[in-house]
Amino acid sequence: MSAGKVVLALDGMGGDHAPDVVVDGADIARERYPGTTYLLFGDPARLKPLVDRRKGLAPVLEIVPAEDAVTADDKPSFAVRRRRKSSMWLAVQAAVEGRADSVVSAGNTGALLAISMFSMRMLEGAHRPALASFLPTSRGEVVMLDLGANVECDAENLAEFAVMGSVFAQALQGLDKPKVGLLNVGSEELKGHDEVRQAAAWLRRDGSPVDFYGFVEGNDIGTGVVDVVATDGFTGNVALKAIEGTAKLYSSFVRDTFRTSTFAKIGYLFAAGALKKFQKRVDPRRYNGGVFLGLDGVCVKSHGGTDALGFAYAIGVANDLVRYEYKNKLVEGLTKLRQTISAAESSSSELQPSGGAE
Amino acid sequence: MSAGKVVLALDGMGGDHAPDVVVDGADIARERYPGTTYLLFGDPARLKPLVDRRKGLAPVLEIVPAEDAVTADDKPSFAVRRRRKSSMWLAVQAAVEGRADSVVSAGNTGALLAISMFSMRMLEGAHRPALASFLPTSRGEVVMLDLGANVECDAENLAEFAVMGSVFAQALQGLDKPKVGLLNVGSEELKGHDEVRQAAAWLRRDGSPVDFYGFVEGNDIGTGVVDVVATDGFTGNVALKAIEGTAKLYSSFVRDTFRTSTFAKIGYLFAAGALKKFQKRVDPRRYNGGVFLGLDGVCVKSHGGTDALGFAYAIGVANDLVRYEYKNKLVEGLTKLRQTISAAESSSSELQPSGGAE
Description:
The structure is a homodimer. Chain A is of the alpha/beta class.
């Protein structure tokens, strides 16, 4: 993997609007990321006409035939066992075998995680993978993880997620020392369950690989008080979906508002431009590109319902991670974490008595 | 406790704007709930002038002197040990000793929970109290619990919370058979950790005391697909605060939108009435009145920053619970749950293998 040239494997058949959005997304990305080339996996009969229509794409993109595809309904275990000729499987293998630096897919999330975990090993020092993504805040964006790869996490997993999120924010946002918070039910040291308090005790120590802010609460996710929010996959998945649901609910309230009266409808005509900016500000495509961190490989998951712009964004995430040499940086961070934990364990126990929510 | 006459103990000194909003709230409630009388605990020198100013309040309200008050910064353990002459402590004791049917406070949440748990026992068949509240949905409201009373919950706690939430929705919303969902990372039976799957297996059985919908995800909280969402206090607290934070973020985005251009400002003038309706629709005061369920007593927590209207709403919650004979109904439900669990345990184990998020 050279710094100058990046090769990305694309799952041509994954997602609700594949293969069109995959090819269109690659075409947008082609202009944005010169020096990056693509291996596009899928059915050549469907892919070739789409690629040929986009001038300039053919020279940087090679179609690799795959006769099968993972469906949205495939169970993860089924995908691992029975979809070995699928575009998703073959794209992941290209990354595993070094023919590509990273893989991008808009296909079935569970299948992609299962195939990636099965094919790529865990990165040295990482015990569990985490699904990370960006969420909007009042100041910009925040990285949140784990969004559902692991429903049960111990203190070590949580501390590793904090390190993964920190390196991810460095790679994607160019931050030198991202501020990392652990999600909890209160900000005091005594709050929360044993796992989160133990993880915090490690991250707080001198020599910790992250700039640890401390505990944050659910309402802090959207304020931008930290750059990274780490939590277990159960809490993270519920929080992510609660945020998405609330955003949807509020958007529908706002839409309803402008239908309530003639005055409101006239108001809408004047405010339409500004309201479109509002919609753009909360546009989920800007936050497209969840990443499985902790694997010995870079695997980017685009939303299944994404359009070409969103898919191009996901390609950008993969590109940034590869160019930042994210894996090497993460191994360094995890090594430092291991040293911090060893140092903590050789001194006295740092656990404090349990406490409830605020 | 008779069905006709209800006595409510009010913590006159609890909350950011006490005692004014407490007295004003009682005055609003007086008109709404005829037949209900009040014991108002606090400093008579401050309370009496406020009460005298409201015509019609004195005949239904008795001031009970309390020389101390719990502060917002008091640790729960400190409040239990050192605030035995406070308005909060004495108001809770009135409910414990039968002089009042219920207690309402806008004071320190942790202190109120600790004092209530210490003074009231747990209700027969309940192992842990849960903090429950209403949240807005696209169809109306949903009851969610536990919002932070217990950070760690086993399967039995979760199943009990489902029963508590169901009886609460019956009492407050007049629903005959509220639909109850358990919060999880996916809707399939195999998803989630052991605790949530075991609780679901019990609630799904014939003879279960609740109308069990199944698993719901974070985005289902706001859709109104169920009437009750039960979860552990860690996840519930994070989800609640994530929802509140997102609502706030979106409101600020909407406000910003109308400042972006002259056209937008003109649009605002036309749409102002409709936008005020929007603000009202998402008004947190409509969802004021968290309740500690599972205690052998009825304890209603109003938001600390509430105004009189919000406090009157919290009084309404207490009133409804008492009139519905919520405690008797909950004991019935918990007894039925115990029978369901026993029946399940005498048959084979119903646990299924573990699964990750969607």
